[in-house]
Amino acid sequence: MGNYKSSISLLEESLKIKREIFGGSNMNDEVANALHNLGLARFLDNDFERGQEVLEKALSIRKDILGQFHVDVARTLDVLGKVYLAKNIFRLALNSHMEALEIKNKVLGNMSHSLGNAHFTKNSHITNKGRCIFQQIFVTAFLTIMATYIF
After folding, report:
1. pLDDT tens-digit map of 13-24
2. pTM of the predicted structure, to 2 decimals
3. All domains in the chain, ordered by first residue
């Protein structure tokens, strides 16, 4: 694994600077991005409690600023779903991943297109479409596995 402690320290400093630049306000996309990155680093460092707390703040800000259906909202939901999964909170993990997938489908289009067709129609979104398809496969596998435990 990486050296997340020093990364976390730098991300916390970045967050502090961004808050100072924007007059202490959290209601800014730059602050939301810093919170998202800090939450992701905490997740990767196995600090799930604090990662969840920071990601939930980032999600709230992103939804307020960007609206419900934005790719950045989906990105934060995706990482938050991973945090919930790591904490064995399966229903919240599933809900987060499903909401992220719904947003990505609305923003990037229906995932029923093949990647080849997507390449010709939406070149700039080919990488994101691939990620959406992977996430859709993950959610399907997750549902199948968890069905025996929670349903």
Report:
1. 999 999 999 888
2. 0.73
3. 4-150 (1.25.40.10)
